[in-house]
């Protein structure tokens, strides 16, 4: 990795890089080769303390600045990110193994979108005036205080900004803990925010595993926790936050349905299924991994899908022609391999892929199972890898009931040429982020998040403001105060 892209220390605290090699070493493995490309250290309690006290101090000053001044910092950071998109995308690829073809358009760019969007909103975060006869009430939209962001490994740059941008726009400070699997990118985000004029301590990054996350979540100085991660971790973090009555945003896992009706445009439906299962080697929480295909179109769908999956360009993620890369880690690859074995053992029909590639790195083939039934493990559990389960269905009512028969509720998609049906079915699917004749679009203008076990709260859009601010109401009496005695 070039000097230019490599962060210079493990943590970023109070406006500068910080090292404390007493913390446990965390090797950073390049998924395309398995080689160690960097090493960071988990935060010691001293580093966590430094980050939290810097955030507490910075937050008061940051909140006193005008929204416009805060917003300018965020939009300047967005501009710097766009200027450095290539270097940041390469770093994202080193960190995650995702192909550069993807990272060039979906990571630092999505992070910059969030900084720009919330930077633009910052000046317009106002309260309201409520006239009550002569008296009146006004509301002030106030920050929550110090927020903790905890990230997953699939979108390290994006996640840090989807949390950091709305938090900072509202006048909060943040301590962000990236996933221990992908620790590098958030450090660059912190560096850029400082360069754009964010006061020291407003956005801090500390490394570590769950224990460091847990130290942050339970600290009494922390007002809010936003986690992107798995459902089991979400339950733990939500419970710990609840003990102290802290605010939470939970962006968790899914097992989302993608419903393809007989009348769908075949090529578009196949494209939707590919995007919704194999982008980022399937490591996307909102993926439509239960693809319900109506009987009349099933064979044509499977034939075309198998044909198109064969043309995936699997290889060196730094080669811009590559459009399918490795899994993030050996561990994740092995988890997915076990699911593939279960799929075969439980009687699903392997239509494409299924094997590890014979090359260095953590590469699995894009894998499609047909004849999957609702009770099979691969239809019920989140795999978080390139494994598509295709299930058959006959009727609209049947597919709605089966699609909803899950503990998750992150996303749902419908492909049909009958738009009334599209809206009717989406209206009945219990999921937070939905698509009609498309899949996995996540523009910053749209709320993103799940229902049921998939999460609490929403990221992006104006909705995120509600999760990073609170209203104070002030009653103002214009006349005398009457009292009974
Ligand atoms: N809904 C969404 O927006 C997204 C959800 N995900 C979900 O994330 C999962 C994959 O990511 P992983 O990093 O493996 O998830 P994970 O749940 O293992 O870890 C997520 C983060 O939580 C931290 N953590 C673990 N235990 C903790 C504790 N007790 N207290 C505080 N922090 C703790 C980890 O260090 C990591 O930074 C998948 O299940 C996926 O569905 C991933 C991306 C987006």
From TrEMBL:
Domain of life: Bacteria
One record GO biological process: glycine betaine biosynthetic process from choline
Alphabetical list of Gene3D superfamilies matching this protein: Aldehyde Dehydrogenase, Chain A, domain 1, Aldehyde Dehydrogenase, Chain A, domain 2
PROSITE patterns the record matches: ALDEHYDE_DEHYDR_CYS, ALDEHYDE_DEHYDR_GLU
Keywords: Metal-binding, NAD, Oxidation, Oxidoreductase, Potassium
Originating species: Vannielia litorea
Enzyme class, spelled out: oxidoreductase
InterPro entries: Ald_DH/histidinol_DH (IPR016161), Ald_DH_C (IPR016163), Ald_DH_CS_CYS (IPR016160), Ald_DH_CS_GLU (IPR029510), Ald_DH_N (IPR016162), Aldehyde_DH_dom (IPR015590), BADH (IPR011264)
Signal peptide start-end: none
Gene Ontology molecular function: betaine-aldehyde dehydrogenase (NAD+) activity; metal ion binding
Coiled-coil regions, chain positions: none
Higher taxonomy: Bacteria, Pseudomonadati, Pseudomonadota, Alphaproteobacteria, Rhodobacterales
Enzyme Commission number(s): 1.2.1.8
Active site, renumbered: 251
Protein known as: Betaine-aldehyde dehydrogenase
Domain Aldehyde dehydrogenase, residue spans: 21-474
Family per similarity comment: Belongs to the aldehyde dehydrogenase family.
